[in-house]
Design a protein that fits this description.
Chain lengths: ~120, ~180
């Protein structure tokens, strides 16, 4: 078996600290916009754009926005996942700018899950 | 894809998935030559030689979430449709270069679209990755380099207000570059 080097350990440390930053105070809410080919073709960029516009209007350093790849649910794209600390992530489907603004204002800021657009809790 | 900038976003996301630290996006509009050239370079893990020859097959993908891989296939088709060319060069461990050319006045050429949105949203969604964006129109160049932006003290690339201004800045500079101001 290959020996593990200091570089490997450093890399693992960095990767893990990135992944766990959500749990340890750096951010308490993570919003993932799924940006695979399917998501982009369906309008994920505009969704992300309106999300950033909404975020610019509130002073919240604990909300983190990330892009990720396709979840495999291409027919329901654009998908957005909202993860609040201590709760199960909620996946929203067929998002557009207006839906994104509503989810941000109601779910992210006030904690009310928007069941009309929700696809699942995972 | 309704816009060339969406293709760019898609290919850039591939590079990010491949573990790239820096993505270089070049858009070269040569109106005199009647040619549009798009280059997306990444320093990710690269593609094996066996796979490079098959990447534009829509039924080939390395992903396990589904069985189709449409991103590069769609870009290749778009380029071919506009009397252009398409190529993927890759070296395992070094990175990948995707190049697509188009005839600039081809009727089937999609508009470049909201490239400012593409660049800023790539930065917003991937704050740990560096992006170098080069836009050349008839030899005049405009560039954005996130490595430069990071050097300025007190600025964070995840700040939505900064991204908003960056987007406006790119839009304005492009207007100047294309002479539509």
């Amino acid at each position: 078996m290959a020996k593990i080097s200091i570089e490997d350990l450093k890399r693992i440390k960095e990767k893990t600290s990135k992944e766990t930053s959500l749990r340890y105070g750096a951010a308490s809410i993570k919003i993932t916009v799924h940006m695979g080919t399917c998501g982009i073709a369906a309008g994920a960029r505009e969704v992300m754009n309106s999300l950033m516009e909404e975020l610019a209007q509130v002073d919240r350093k604990d909300i983190r926005v990330v892009a990720s790849g396709c979840m495999g649910l291409c027919s329901s794209e654009p998908n957005v996942t909202v993860e609040t600390e201590g709760e199960k992530p909620v996946v929203y489907q067929k998002m557009d700018s207006n839906r994104m603004r509503q989810v941000f204002k109601r779910h992210v800021l006030l904690g009310e899950v928007q069941t009309d657009f929700a696809l699942a809790r995972i | 894809m309704r816009e060339i900038s969406l293709h760019i976003m898609d290919v850039a996301e591939n590079g990010i998935t491949a573990g790239a630290e820096c993505i270089n996006i070049i858009i070269d509009e040569e109106r005199i030559e009647n040619r549009l050239k798009i280059v997306i370079k990444d320093n990710g893990k690269g593609i094996s030689p066996d796979m490079v020859s098959r990447v534009t097959d829509p039924f080939v993908t390395t992903r396990t979430t589904r069985r189709v891989g449409l991103g590069l296939s769609l870009l290749k088709e778009a380029a071919k449709r506009c009397e252009g060319d398409f190529s993927v060069k890759s070296e395992t461990g070094k990175g990948t270069i995707v190049t697509a050319t188009f005839r600039l006045d081809h009727i089937d050429l999609a508009p470049i679209g909201d490239i400012a949105g593409t660049i800023t949203m790539l930065i917003a969604g991937n704050p740990d990755i560096d992006f170098v964006y080069d836009h050349v129109i008839d030899g005049t160049r405009f560039a954005i380099d996130t490595r430069e932006l990071r050097k300025e003290p007190g600025k964070s690339l995840t700040d939505p207000v900064l991204l908003f201004h960056l987007k406006k800045h790119i839009e304005n500079e492009l207007k100047k570059l294309s002479g539509n101001e």
